[in-house]
Every structure is written in C-alpha cells, then in structure tokens.
Amino acid sequence: MTPWRARFPDGSLVLVDTRDGVEHLLAEADPSDGERFEGPARWAPDGRAVIVWRVKGPQAHPVHIVEWSPPDQVQPRLMTFDYLKPGDRIRQRWPVLVKVDGDAPGIVDTDVEALMPNPWSVSREAWSDDGARFTCVYNERGHRIVRVISI
What we know:
Layout: E1 4-7, E2 13-17, E3 23-27, E4 35-43, E5 49-56, E6 62-67, E7 77-82, E8 92-99, E9 106-108, H1 112-115, E10 119-127, E11 134-140, E12 146-150
Antiparallel strand pairs: 1-2, 2-3, 4-5, 5-8, 6-7, 8-9, 10-11, 11-12
C-alpha cells in the first residue's frame, strides 16, 4: 500500500504524502488551453509509480436552434448547445507517469504524446504484475493507427 494519494484540485496535479499531510504540486492546469489533469489514478502494484491523465477538453462549437412554438410560452425560444463537427478538437487524454520513490514525487518525461499524437481513445490500461511497465491501447482519431503503448 502506497503512502501517497493523488488529488486534482482545479485540474492541477497534487500528490499528498498521507504520512505527514505534505502536498506536492507537480503540475498546474492550463485553463486557457483547456488542459487539465484528472483520474482515475492507476497505481503500480508496488506503489512506487502512478499513472494519471493529462486531458485537453473539446473545443467550443455552439449551435443555435430556435424553437418557434414552445408548448409553455407564446414567444419563440433560443436554445444553444455544443455540437462538435468532423475536424473539431475532441476531448483527448494522455497517460502521465509519476514516480513516487523517495521523498519527492516527480513526473517522468516519457514523450508519450509523440507516440499518441491525436487519440480517439486510450483503453485497456494495465500495470504489469511487477509494476515495471504500464500498457495501454492507443486508437488514433480516424482509426487508421492502433498501437499498444508500454511506458
């Protein structure tokens, strides 16, 4: 059992040492780009590493509809909702490896975004039994490339 706990206040990545309550801010969210960190945190079996997710949200693409004869009022009603079209930026996520060996946890630069440049989905996440590697299946947007990625 690891003495660490992952938190995501306002989309930032914080690891808390549960032994003394000290919080380590590892990365901050970037609201201007819609980038944030989130769970679920996937802990290695030995508790020395964790995978969290860096997420970019979808772009805003508002669509407007006029309901010209709503049943509850005489005036038309304007309704607006987001509706993504082909080519719009979708919600995407990438695994982030965090090592928690020793006293100070840190993000490991795995350059995983170069192997997963435009994910449609990342699935089948699993740690090896010995905690030496994390594996997932990357399906590229457009479904032309599918890779098994091992970190």
